[in-house]
UniProtKB/TrEMBL annotation:
<dbReference type="InterPro" id="IPR000257">
    <property type="entry name" value="Uroporphyrinogen_deCOase"/>
</dbReference>
<feature type="domain" description="Uroporphyrinogen decarboxylase (URO-D)">
    <location>
        <begin position="22"/>
        <end position="31"/>
    </location>
</feature>
<feature type="binding site">
    <location>
        <begin position="27"/>
        <end position="31"/>
    </location>
    <ligand>
        <name>substrate</name>
    </ligand>
</feature>
<feature type="binding site">
    <location>
        <position position="328"/>
    </location>
    <ligand>
        <name>substrate</name>
    </ligand>
</feature>
<dbReference type="GO" id="GO:0004853">
    <property type="term" value="F:uroporphyrinogen decarboxylase activity"/>
</dbReference>
<dbReference type="GO" id="GO:0005829">
    <property type="term" value="C:cytosol"/>
</dbReference>
<comment type="subunit">
    <text>Homodimer.</text>
</comment>
<keyword id="KW-0963">Cytoplasm</keyword>
<feature type="binding site">
    <location>
        <position position="154"/>
    </location>
    <ligand>
        <name>substrate</name>
    </ligand>
</feature>
<comment type="pathway">
    <text>Porphyrin-containing compound metabolism; protoporphyrin-IX biosynthesis; coproporphyrinogen-III from 5-aminolevulinate: step 4/4.</text>
</comment>
<comment type="similarity">
    <text>Belongs to the uroporphyrinogen decarboxylase family.</text>
</comment>
<keyword id="KW-0627">Porphyrin biosynthesis</keyword>
<dbReference type="Pfam" id="PF01208">
    <property type="entry name" value="URO-D"/>
</dbReference>
<feature type="binding site">
    <location>
        <position position="77"/>
    </location>
    <ligand>
        <name>substrate</name>
    </ligand>
</feature>
<dbReference type="InterPro" id="IPR006361">
    <property type="entry name" value="Uroporphyrinogen_deCO2ase_HemE"/>
</dbReference>
<dbReference type="InterPro" id="IPR038071">
    <property type="entry name" value="UROD/MetE-like_sf"/>
</dbReference>
<feature type="site" description="Transition state stabilizer">
    <location>
        <position position="77"/>
    </location>
</feature>
């Protein structure tokens, strides 16, 4: 088993005792850091950053040089799988991801290949191996994927959407087609995450960004069922250590009992749910990750500290089984200093909960 100097994050996910609450930030490697913007300019565009293992490694390590974070997260994108399926991912400035080709009919779904993680997605595995080597056991590395439902929304809509009209039309008018697509995506995600684990990811997370747009019944049928399939297909131990799995559905607070029932190790919470309520409902079954509103990072240092304390109080004493995070990704307009206040406050203010 490779030694980790700081395994607080992995221990918390497995509900083991820790000396302080571990903290990392969604999108911690990203546009709020001037050093990231400089490297992206050098790379030319976002996908060139992702596809160059040295660049992806450098971007992953940048926030760790600034802050005492308890985990690194692979620098990549949730849409690598549909890109590897041949849909032609590209990014338009200010508009987010788009696809050159979309899924419109049954033959489109039938003809979709399931990508080989070491071939079409080999650049991601190269990045994982490079990052693990360069981390030198300082902190664990998180691998990740988008959920099948979230990937399908982009593949069918052709980009982000306000109404999700095309995928909902398919869900309700041609459910067989959508279920075939989601099943293929679940199989692809299982292969992809298991390859990341084999390459060195010590924990994995599934981002279900758009599960929260569904009714409870449709969420279970079109989103959760496929995340459940993935959880059951993942390698849960590697290198002599458990590999914890975290599931995150944005706006999924009403379904956390069902999410916890998949057998995942942790449920990540957005900021629209009270962590004390979440702990009462599922905290004896799984660890919780979250859940400060990312916009709070615009507040004064005193207000940020106050919010951190409120969330720590909400989770309560004993403190085991909590990974502190934002309820979604840090936004590009946050000052790096305020992110530092947040991270330091979590470590400092959480120690009494663990004594």
């Amino acid at each position: 088993m490779s030694e980790l100097k700081n395994d607080r994050y992995l221990r918390a996910l497995l509900k083991q005792p820790v000396d302080a609450t571990p903290v990392w930030m969604m999108r911690q490697a990203g546009r709020y850091l001037p050093e990231y913007r400089a490297l992206r300019a050098e790379a030319g565009d976002f996908m060139s950053l992702c596809k160059n293992a040295e660049f992806a490694c450098e971007v992953t390590l940048q926030p760790l040089r600034r802050y005492p974070l308890d985990a690194a997260i692979l620098f990549s994108d949730i849409l690598t799988i549909p890109d590897a399926m041949g849909l032609g991912l590209y990014f338009e400035t200010g508009e987010g991801p788009k696809f050159e080709r979309t899924i419109e009919c049954m033959s489109d779904v039938v003809n979709l290949p399931i990508p080989d993680p070491e071939q079409e997605l080999g650049y991601v595995m190269n990045a994982v191996r490079t990052i693990r080597r360069e981390l030198k056991g300082e902190v664990p590395l998180i691998g990740f994927s988008g959920s099948p439902w979230t990937l399908a929304t982009y593949m069918i809509e052709g980009g982000s959407s306000k109404t999700f009209g095309k995928i909902k039309k398919m869900a309700f008018a041609e459910p067989k087609m959508l279920h075939l697509l989601l099943d293929k995506l679940a199989d692809s995600v299982i292969l992809y995450l298991n390859a990341q684990i084999k390459a060195g990811a010590q924990s994995v997370m599934i981002f279900d960004t758009w599960g929260g747009i569904l009714t409870p019944r449709d969420y279970k049928a079109f989103s959760l069922a496929y995340m459940d399939k993935i959880v059951k297909g993942l390698v849960r131990e590697n290198d002599g250590r458990k590999v914890p799995v975290t599931l995150f559905t944005k706006n999924g607070g009403m379904w956390i009992e069902d999410i916890a029932a998949t057998g995942c190790d942790a449920v990540a919470l957005d900021w629209t749910i009270d962590i004390a309520d979440a702990k009462r409902r599922i905290g004896d079954k799984v660890a919780l990750q979250g859940n400060m509103d990312p916009a709070m990072l615009h507040a004064s240092p005193e207000r940020i500290r106050e919010e951190v304390k409120t969330i720590l109080d909400g989770f309560g004493d004993g403190g085991t089984g909590h990974v502190f995070n934002l309820g979604h990704g840090i936004t590009p307009d946050v000052t790096p200093e305020n992110a530092g206040v947040f991270i330091n406050s979590v470590h400092e203010l959480s120690k009494p909960y663990h004594s």
